[in-house]
Structures are given as structure tokens and as C-alpha cells.
Amino acid sequence: MASGLIVIAVLIFIALLLRICHILINAKHEEVHKRIAGLNALPLPSAIAFVYRVNHQNFFEEYEKLFRKYGRIVGLWGLRRFVIFSMDVELNELLMLSPVHITKHRNYDSLKLWLGTGLLLSNGRKWHQRRKIITPTFHFKILEDFLPVFDQQSSVALQCLAEVAEDGKTTVDIYPFMCRLALDIIAETAMGTKVNAQVDKTMPYTSAVQEMTAMMAWRFLRVHIQNEITFSLFCPLKKLRQMKLISIMHKFTRNVIEKRRQELESKEETNEESDIGSKKRMALLDLLLQATINGKPLSDEDIREEVDTFMFEGHDTTTSALSFTLHLLARHPQIQNKLLAEIRRVYPDEEENKFTLMNLNELKCMECVIKEVLRLYPSVPIIAREIVEDFKYEHSKLGSGVIPAGTEFMLSLYGMMRDGTRFEDPLEFRPERHEQHDAGTNFAFVPFSAGPRNCVGQKFAMYEMKVILVNILKRFELLPLGDKVAPILNIVMRSETGMQLGLKERM
Ligand code: HEM
Asked: Which Gene3D superfamilies is this protein grouped with (predicted)?
């Protein structure tokens, strides 16, 4: 009995001691601590237990529980780390619009060996310079030139889908089809090179991109292997595989860059048909080859980082959005029919669609559908930042204060876009809610983020998705076969059950 009491007393003493250490280490966070409720690391290890409990499958559920319990802004005090999770529109807007707090979180570091510090992962001066030269590469004129690529690659996808459709009797997981289509499109538009991912499933480069994306997704929430050293120690074989994949991908992109640079230098493509089949079409790579910073051209390695970044960011996100859209349309026949009527009005020709940016802008119903899909199933459900300078805020509920440098910040786009105070019946799929100009919900609806670090490829993505959807919906009726989606976090949002549906050729 007495020994039992001694053990309890010792445990309480240790817990108190740790708590005091914790308070001393986190002294600078005390002010925020008082304002933001959440989980502590000590004396009870609730924050640590939470971090290890969360995985790809239960991520959204666990965070919903946390927000329900503590409110829209939740603090997680680790031993030496302080993380704020926020689905609070007002606070997130302050952060997204800030020109200062744009530093990416270390969670993304596992992507750096592949993507380097291209636009997605760079910070500070480098990011500013890159953003300045990359933004004009997504100019309307350039996007218009890409429409034939979107269209031609969609027609390859139609053939692939026709082979598995079986007149709507078979359940098809649409995700891998959309993934290969998005890869073909981004390779051709970013690098000016056809990779034929849809017809040649064994091509080393595209297989490597897919395998690497899956591996990054697998590592993303496993805190102990996010660092390259611990990854090598805990998973040496996977680390070796990762090195191999990176070497395949870098070799491929370097070759493409070298070839395009030589072509540009000898001005071949101004006279001849290039392998993308057009005299005038420029790939994003060509624009990077011509760009300069302070009068100096970008090096091949600078360009490689950006091309690899486009390859990653430009295929995984659109794959997710397109697959969720098709899955949801299959389950909402009325909306599907409304969309089809709009498509037939804008593109009455049975055989051929003449896509222009202008007629794609006429697809208002489709725009609402895509927005609603991105609201419910945002491809990028969470944005992570590191606060490197004290963040001064004025907030209607928190008052005014400072979030100290060193704080980690997770903005839940998913939480914001499903917030019942911003969206009526938030879990319902109602595209018409976007018909009005999102009055009152401006910053609650941010699937492409907002402010200086918003998505540079958002217009590209919208036009790409529209062309693909027009082609698929004109050819196939989508049927509600298979399982419902079960969202998981794999860097981007995916579904554990795939994105199932049936496809029936229209008469
Ligand atoms: C449905 C499709 C897409 C969605 C929902 C989406 C969403 C986003 C979001 C939310 C961010 C901010 C990420 C952060 O701050 O951590 C982002 C950044 C970015 N996106 Fe997209 N994206 C899409 C398609 C694309 C495409 C097609 C491209 C390229 C062709 C692209 C290129 C980029 C790049 C380079 C960044 C980094 C921008 C910067 O940090 O300055 N995205 N995207």
C-alpha cells in the first residue's frame, strides 16, 4: 500500500517537473495559450497521443472532433512545438493575405529531394523572384494554346474508358484514368513532350511520378519519417527506392530541358513542327528557358525544379478534383442532366468541340459544379505554414495579440468550406449555391488558397477540367455504381474506396 502511494507521488512529481519545464520552454507562447484552447503535451501527453493517433484514414474525422470540442482555433502544445489548427475564416484570411507569413511548413520537406525549392516549396527572395517570372507563363493567351492539348488527350481518355465501360454494367474506378490523363496533359503543356501515360502504362518516367507521389503521400503524416535521416534509418529499402525514382525523374526532365534549350538556341521549332504538333505553341518550359532574373537566364537546375513542381502540383490536384466531380455527378443525375444541356447548348456539334476560352467561360453551370466539388472535397484540404516573424493579429473574438515566431500554423481549407455558419446545409452537394457571387462567404471559399501564395495554376486547372468534363459527359452517361467515396488525406485529398461509377455510352 505504502509503496503504491510512493509510486503515485513520484509520478505526480515527475509530471509536475515536466510541466514546469514545458511552461519554461514555451513561455513565449503563454499569451496565446491563454486565448486558444487545445491539447497539451504535458502533464498528460494528449497532444502527442493525438499526433500519433491521426492517420490518412481518420484525419478528417479526428480534426472535426477537435474543432467541435475546442472551437474553430485549436492549439497543440508539443514538447517544444506549438501548432495552431484553424478553420476560422477571419484568422486564416489574415494569414493568407499577409505578404510576410508565406514560409512553407517543414511537413513538405520530404518533397524537396524531388522538387527542389521550386515555386511550391521555396521561401523568401527566391520565391518572390520565381513567382514574378512564373505568373505570366499562365497568361490567357498561353492557356488558349493549351486547349487543343486538353482536348486531344481527353479523346485518348475516352478510348480508354470505352474499353472498360461495358455499357454501364461494370463498376469503374475513374481515379487512375484521370491520373494518367492529367499526367499526359501536364507533361505536354509543361515540357512540350508527350509521355503517353494513358496508352503506355510501363513508361519509366510516368510510373516513377506515380510511385513517388504515392510514397510522398505515405510519408506525409508519419511524423517520425518525414526527415530524410530518420526515413533512411527506419525504412532503408524505401529510401533506396525513393532515390532510384528521383534519379529516373530527374534524368528525364534534365534531358527534356537540354533538348528544348538546344532547339530554342538553334531556333528549330520556329520553322518546323515540334513534337507537340504546333508551330506556335510554347510549353511552360520554353517560357522558363527565355526568362531572366536580373538579366541572367535561369540555370537548367532552376528550370528542372520548376518543371518537376508543375509535374507534381499540376497532376495530383486536378486528378483528385476531376475524379470527385465525376463520382458526384454519377450520384446526382439531375445535376448531370442540367450540365449536359448546358454542354449541348455551348457545343452543339456532335463530332467536334471547338474550344475557346470564351466558350469555356460560358459554362456557368459547370463552373458551379466544379466549385461545389472543390468546396466539399478540396484537392488541397490543408495548408501548412511556419510563422518566422511574430504575427500580430486583430481578431473579433481573440482580440489583438501576437502569435510568436516559431509557431506552426495549419489552415484547414476543408474545415472552412464545410462551416455551417458560412454555408447553409454544408454537407449537401448544391452547385447552385455558387450562382450568386459568393456573398458573405468570400474568404470561406478558397480551394485555390488566396493572397500572394495562392495557386498559380488555378485558371489552367479550371479550363483543363472543363474541357475534360465536356468530352466525358458528351460521350458517357455516368451511373451511380460502386461504393461511395471515403475521403483520406494523401497530401492531396483522395478516397480510400477509389472513385467508383458506371459509364454508359450515350446513343
Ligand atoms: C483543382 C486543381 C488545383 C487545386 C485545387 C490547387 C490548389 C492549390 C492550393 C490550395 C495551393 C496553395 C498551397 C499552399 O499554400 O500550401 C496551390 C499552390 C500551387 N499550385 Fe495549385 N491547385 C490546382 C492545380 C494546379 C495546377 C494545374 C498547377 C500547375 C499547372 C498548379 C500549380 C501550383 C503551384 C506551382 C503552387 C505554388 C504557388 C506558390 O507557392 O506560389 N496547381 N494550389
From this structure: Cytochrome P450
Ligand 1 centre to CA of 135 (Å) is 12
Q: Scanning the structure block, which residue is given the C-alpha cell 525544379?
A: 305
Torsion angle, CA of 163/167/168/169, rounded to 10 degrees?
A: -90
Say how far residue 228 (Cα) sits from the centre of its chain. 22
Residue 455 Cα to ligand 1 middle (Å): 4
Minimum CA distance residue for ligand 1 atom 1: 318
Angle CA 380–187–291, to nearest 5: 90
pLDDT of 47 over the 90 cut: no
**Strands annotated E in 360-499:** 382-386, 391-395, 399-403, 408-412, 476-479, 487-490, 492-495
Q: Whose CA is nearest to atom 41 of ligand 1?
A: 453
Task: Look at the chain and count its residues.
Answer: 507
Q: Cα dist. 27→34, 84, 143, 198, 207 in Å?
A: 12, 16, 51, 55, 49
Across the range 137-160, mean pLDDT stands at 94
| Count of Cβ atoms closer than 10 Å to residue 24 Cβ | 8
Stretch (H or E) spanning 334: helix 333-346
Mean pLDDT across 377-403? 92
pLDDT at 417 over 50: yes
Express each pLDDT in 124-136 by its tens digit. Answer: 999 999 999 999 8
Q: Whose Cα sits closest to atom 19 in ligand 1?
A: 455
The answer to whether 368 is annotated as binding is no
Question: Is residue 494 a contact partner of residue 321, using CB atoms and an 8 Å limit?
Answer: no
| pTM listed for this prediction | 0.91
